[in-house]
Design a protein that fits this description.
About 45% of the residues lie in helices and about 15% in strands. It is α/β, with parallel strands linked by helices. The chain has two domains: about 150 residues, Rossmann fold (3-Layer(aba) Sandwich), CATH 3.40.50.10860; about 200 residues, Rossmann fold, CATH 3.40.50. The longest helix is centred in the last third of the chain and has 26 residues.
Amino acid sequence: MEAAKTHHAHYSFFHGVERNFDKAAKYTRFESGILEQIKACNSVYRMKYPVRIGDNIEVIEAYRVQHSHHKLPCKGGIRYSMDVNQDEVMALASLMTYKCAIVNVPFGGAKGGIKIDPKKYTPFELEKITRRYASELVKKNFIGPGIDVPAPDYGTGAREMSWIVDTYASLKPGEVDALACVTGKPVTQGGVRGRTEATGLGVYYGIRELCHIAEDMKKIGLTTGIEGKKVIIQGLGNVGYHAAKYFFDNGAIVVGLSEYEGGIYNEKGLDIYKVVEFRKATGSILNYEGATNFKNGADILEQECDILIPAALENVINGSNAIRIKAKIIGEAANGPLTPEADEILDRKGVIVVPDMYLNAGGVTVSYFEWLKNLSHVRFGRMDKRFSENQNTFLLKSVEDLTGKRVTDIEREQLLHGPDEVDLVYSGLEDTMISSYHEIRDAWMSHKGTVDMRTAAFTVAINKVGVSYEELGIFP
């Protein structure tokens, strides 16, 4: 992975996104001025602020970029990493705009980042850094339920979100919707059930939908369905772990896994739960029983498989290694794991690349549900769970009385179950991933193989954002 990074030291992630945008823009009907506006980052806030760490004062570098205001609030994660820079935050913010458009989530795109290595700080120090960042955003009106709603990303989680929401609420006393200023919060602080696994589950739903379509599977010489497909997953963070779990639970054969310490491969399959237990016990996935070790985790990407899921960092598949990729389907669970050069090479090889801005949109979809929950001040399912159960009980009793037959206890439990919050969240996510996939596929098919799926996804996104700009009439 490090080799991939140094090889692409000159590579601008934002220009990569712009390049993909330009490729797709020519398939849309908008004049160049509107396209320029869609492409541009509207607001870039770069800040430096001092925080006392131990006996010293450290100057922290941080960013918040609002890419598009065609819909408000803006939405996007905050990452803590030494790799954070303006180019990366702008690229990720622009991808958020297109991602929200694709999955019909009514937000503009944004992204934030703090240039620190979170492992080097105590929780108390991280809290100081985070709360100060939140107060800087409040000062400049760069955060709020109707302005800009951050979320967790690489290096952050529910803990950081609860610090931000607390800081925001203390600076805006009496704001009734304060909880909606961030998503990805702990459930006790207004979070939504199902948010943690949302991105990984969305990846699974998206790939499953592709694998259901006989015509597309035939083109790449695979049978339909997830069962029996060989899958390699790079990255066992939140997204990679949950994606691996859903593939494994639904009958796929997980043959390879990689993490920063290296990778493991076993063509007969790996038990994802046992590998995670093994890593907890030993601190590494290497030397797992029955698996071949790869000292360089990036080498795992090149092994035999049907489906490859890069769920770690950007640019891991690039001009230098794309030719050696053996997968027939690549599902971009991470943001920007393929460079434009890799796209071209894989497209020529006939590989189906399911793009990040659709495939990892499960997180923002469920964030949208959390935001709605915070604005409505009521838990999903609270109003109708018992009503559904009572109706189902009445219906089942009527059917049993009429037929004289009784269902089994397991069937009874399933038939009578009223939806909990997590059931409704999963259902909303599944519906979103399926319907969005078909919107992209229709655009893809309408160009009869002349464009790849990423370009098709970009055209879908540009069309939706462009229509918003036209209908807003914001060009004086």
